[in-house]
Amino acid sequence: MSTAPNKQSALKKITRGLTVGTVITGSTFFHGPPVLALGLTKLLKKSSKVDETNIQITNSWLGVNNWLIDHVLPNLKWDITIDEGLDLNMQGRYLMTCNHQSWVDTTVNQYFGLTRMPLTRFFTKWELIFIPFVGQAFKILGFPMMKRHTKEQVAKNPELKDRDMMEARKACEQLLSQPFTLLNYLEGTRFTQEKHDQQKSPYKHLLKPKAGGLALALNILGDKIDALVDMTIVYPNGVPGYSDFWLGEVSKIAVNLRKIEIPDWVLGAMGDPDCHGHVSLHRHRPVRDRADRLPAGRTRRGRDDGGRRPDLPHGRPGARPNPHRPQLPPHRLTKARVARLGT
Hints:
The protein is of the alpha/beta class. It has 2 domains: 1-74; 76-118 and 179-341, no CATH class. The chain has 12 helices and 8 strands. It has helices at 4-41, 48-72, 104-113, 134-140, 151-156, 159-174, 193-199, 212-221, 242-246, 264-270, 281-284, 335-341, and strands at 77-82, 93-98, 120-122, 124-125, 145-146, 180-184, 227-234, 252-260. The strands form 2 sheets. Strands 1-8-7-2-6-3 form a 6-stranded mixed sheet, sandwiched between helices. Strands 4-5 form a two-stranded parallel sheet. The protein is globular.
């Protein structure tokens, strides 16, 4: 008798897994080939109509995943909050940053954005291009794909250092002909406690940011975007694996979006021909200071309302006061909301 609930639970998981796997595989084979076929036509002639059609097919592809979430995972509770002042629409142009904890993060982004924002593209690693249909679709749809070169490889061939940035620059420039959302995971990799300890990150729940991709995007798109959007994803019951998510092991996901005002001096520096897109966002902290992020459902501790560490004189080790540096407004993710997101 005591094992009956477990057997029933196991049966449900198996049924759910088979359903999800069958539908996602079928959807991939249904939507993938048309995207690839239309993408090949662009080798002969560029066409905005082809781009629009490919985006429509991709949105249908993502819509199948969202349908699965709504119908196969009916017990999943969403807590989505959008701060006042952030106006999202399907014709907008957005840069987005987000904390990164799991492969599920991308599914969450797509679930949220499908009916609220243009197709979300994100900086991704080149190795994903070898995933059948999906990887090639990334390339055709204009996802900036970055190769990771070791220091030894760059030392032997210095051109490798700039080659990736030129490809990413080209991908960003191509977005200007259409509405877009460009997502950048500033940490560059998924958060784990081991990586956090190795980096000796000054943030409790974040890795050290890698601002190169965002600096490049701001350099090319900064004065043409409608908003810089900051997304926080919280898994109150712990960070799930991808299979955990689709097997119904996740009971709640909280998402908060806010608009970050880009200081004028950042855009001014990006337009400086001597800058070449290498503004030190790490040094000036205008848009990358996300120290109050809330991964794994933990509440923010040890920070004041401005998101700074009160035990350090100016919010970070070794900082010196700079009365001439513009400051962003304090984070609007209030303590009350933080507590609610983490419950």
